[in-house]
Amino acid sequence: xxxxxxxxxxxxxxAGGSRTAADIITHxxxxxxxxLARALPPRDLAPARLHAAMWDAVFPGGRRARPLLCLLxxxxxxxxxxxxxxxxxxAVELVHCASLVQDDMPCFxxxxxxxxxxxxHKVYGDATAILVGDALLxxxxxxxxxxxxxxxxxxxxxxxxxxxxxxxxxGIIGGQGLELEPSxxxxxxxxxxxxxxxxxxxxxxxxxxxxxxxxxxxxxxxxLLGCALQLRDDIDDVEATPEAVGKPIGRDAAxxxxxxxxxxxxxxxxxxxxxxxxxxAELLGAPTPETEALRLVVDxxxxxxxxx
Amino acid sequence: xxxxxxxxxxxxxxAGGSRTAADIITHxxxxxxxxLARALPPRDLAPARLHAAMWDAVFPGGRRARPLLCLLxxxxxxxxxxxxxxxxxxAVELVHCASLVQDDMPCFxxxxxxxxxxxxHKVYGDATAILVGDALLxxxxxxxxxxxxxxxxxxxxxxxxxxxxxxxxxGIIGGQGLELEPSxxxxxxxxxxxxxxxxxxxxxxxxxxxxxxxxxxxxxxxxLLGCALQLRDDIDDVEATPEAVGKPIGRDAAxxxxxxxxxxxxxxxxxxxxxxxxxxAELLGAPTPETEALRLVVDxxxxxxxxx
Lengths: 308, 308
Fold this sequence. Notes:
The structure is a homodimer.
Chain A: H1 3-14, H2 21-39, H3 48-58, H4 65-76, H5 83-103, E1 113-114, E2 117-118, H6 120-124, H7 126-145, H8 152-166, H9 172-178, H10 186-208, H11 215-239, H12 242-245, H13 251-255, H14 260-264, H15 266-284, H16 289-302
Antiparallel strand pairs in A: 1-2
Helix pairs in contact in A: 2-4, 2-16, 3-7, 4-5, 4-10, 4-16, 5-7, 5-8, 5-10, 7-8, 8-10, 9-10, 10-11, 11-15, 15-16
């Protein structure tokens, strides 16, 4: 967002103007989209095919739940417009977008559509799709490396959080690797495949804000939210329609992928999802517009397509 | 290497013991292999298939020219055993190993062998091979993020160097992307595909050693060496045997890939390679065991399989 807009908002707040939760979310959504567009290499810069595909992998986005979590946690500390927080928010979103491109490839989920549009590998081919994954993953780290030099010490800690959340031992790449194992612990799988990035997003925001004592609590919020979102995905894969979710359904059953709704039943998955969301609500604390904004994001990100 | 061994070597040097260039190289080769083995996740840690494949992508290595360049530049400043230098050396090698796994895949060079052994995708399949690329790329950044916290400011700069050297705009991923473009500038392609990591390796060492005034010179050494090595590869692809190089040859012609020896002739490529190596020699300066070690690494890394 522009400096001027930020100033206006700050003065509105200090003058007692009541920003609603929806205002807060809209503000951060807009700032995030602008920042992502600035971070991507120009579409026509060589290699132009790769760069065009990177744009298509990032825009239009989905719910942007991971970066919004990051920005809204920082908002709780009055630092939602901090540059380093935005960089961490972008970094987790870029890793997420990289993972989606790869998930859709023929040797993974073999999905032809994503967010209602053709998947990257369908438009650009497998080779470019693989490179888009690599390039967005690398860009995530580059975005952190371009932080102001005076924040080097804090950025250094963010690299550690992002690296673990992405990597093979504890992160999303390891989660994708678990799908290829003969048997897998469903909870560990959900924590790596989905919750790791949410953890890093929330914990990273607290680190940026110097809220050392709260880092573990926010990491827990991220983990619960991430696991609830994965349960939503599992439920949708069993009972939603492709139109409602913008991608093929029934893939987990077809490919023998771990799925909580398949393993334990949709009812059980719904109950567990609700318990996780209740856990988040408990951790969020006192009701303020900022807390309410977080609650809205959690709700939006974890609601199954089929209402009950 | 062990603390004790390092002490022994230091005392040997200070006592006037004459380390040869070969001693210096052997010392760093051994230290590097040990450090890489410590950095990789245990082979049997879940996801075990992915982790086993990561080990097979890193061991046994090739010439390890990139990390040796990094370590030997630091050696010129008496800091070849600095932990942060080793982390930078490992990081560039991990990115390189990631790129090789991907280069061999069916949708890229479609090569069945690498270093005389079956390629990763032949042993583990395409899905695991893609994840190995992601995981080694991420591990490169994680290795830097695990540097001692007191080196955070310097490590922060290394993240920037590594990110550019890997990324789509100036780095190796962009170089792979250029292969998929309808036409490409050969020099720009060589600089991204191969020289970028050498630049980062040499410049990163100077940054670690606090040799700010020399960073540009070492970056140039890395660039010249990287381009000379790529010319060696281009020449080998035209006139070597698969046995001599441990991988298929003639791939560039078969796949329509940019190749200097195909485009301008083997004689021209050999002459250019020699000019680049002469440029490196000029930049290396006064002959010492450390300079001689660098010269040996350059020679070994850039010598075509077919002698003339």
